[in-house]
Amino acid sequence: MTAESTIAAEAQLPEGGFTPWPQEQAEHYRRTGLWAGARLDRIAAAHLPQRAERPALIDDAGSLSYAQLEASVRTAGAALQAAGVGNRDRVVLHLGNQNGFVVAALALMRIGAVPVYALPAHGERELIGISEGSGAVGILVSEQDEAARGRAEVAAQAVEAAGLKVLLLEE
After folding, report:
1. How far apart are the C-alpha atoms of 80 and 74, rounded to whole Å?
2. Which residue has the higher pLDDT, 133 or 106?
3. Based on CB atoms within 10 Å of each CB, which residue in 85, 88, 97, 141 is the most buried?
4. Three-state SS at 59
5. What is the pLDDT of residue 170?
6. Cα separation of 115 and 126, whole Å?
7. Cα separation of 18 and 88, whole Å?
8. What is the pairing mode between strands 114-117 and 90-93?
9. What residues does 58 pair with on adjacent strands?
10. Residue of 127, 68, 137 lying closest to 103 (CA atoms)
11. How far apart are CA 45 and CA 39, in angstroms?
12. End-to-end CA distance of the chain
């Protein structure tokens, strides 16, 4: 299968509840090489053979090589599945700017779930609205630092109000 046929095949997949990008713009982005027709988790995994020990992510707490990123994505994906997250389930990511945010997003994509991005500054009211509007089954949080613990408390309040699962990102 050529790259062009792969792109064409993926472009025709059902949107799964997403609002599609306008067709003319989408075709332009594909023609100019801005869209490769692959999910982000697959793009990251494709770099593993050539760059296994090179840095893939860097944050204040440290860095992850491509090999470490792949292992973390697999571990997080298995944990999410064990927590009951499945294909096409939506999960709100209420995480700060950290390596774990990328790991969580890629893990959700890898297991077929849909990440729903919330800003760290979102409070209980916004999280409830985002969760209900997206049909999320849970909110993924971290307790990495004091700010994250505060977000986790807000998310717990939103979860109680909306009847969702709290999923804790282990770091």
Report:
1. 10
2. 106
3. 141
4. strand
5. 63
6. 16
7. 11
8. parallel
9. 63
10. 68
11. 10
12. 38
Q: Which has the closest alpha carbon to 134: 101, 91, 77?
A: 91
φ/ψ (deg, to 5) at 84: 100, 5
* Strand, helix or coil for residue 141: strand
Q: What amino acid occupies position 82?
A: A
Does the pLDDT value for residue 26 go beyond 60? yes
Q: Measured between alpha carbons, how far is 133 from 106 in angstroms, rounded to an integer?
A: 22
- For residue 63, give the 3-state DSSP assignment: strand
Residue 122: other Cβ atoms inside 10 A: 19
Enumerate residues 6+ apart whose C-beta is below 8 A from 6: 37, 38
Record the tokens describing residue 73, joined without a space. Answer: 């994505």
Asked whether residue 19 carries a pLDDT value surpassing 90, the answer given is no
DSSP 8-state secondary structure symbol assigned to residue 164:
-
Under the phi-then-psi rule, with left for phi > 0, alpha for psi from -120 to 50, and beta for the rest, what region is 17? left
C-alpha 53: how far from chain center: 23
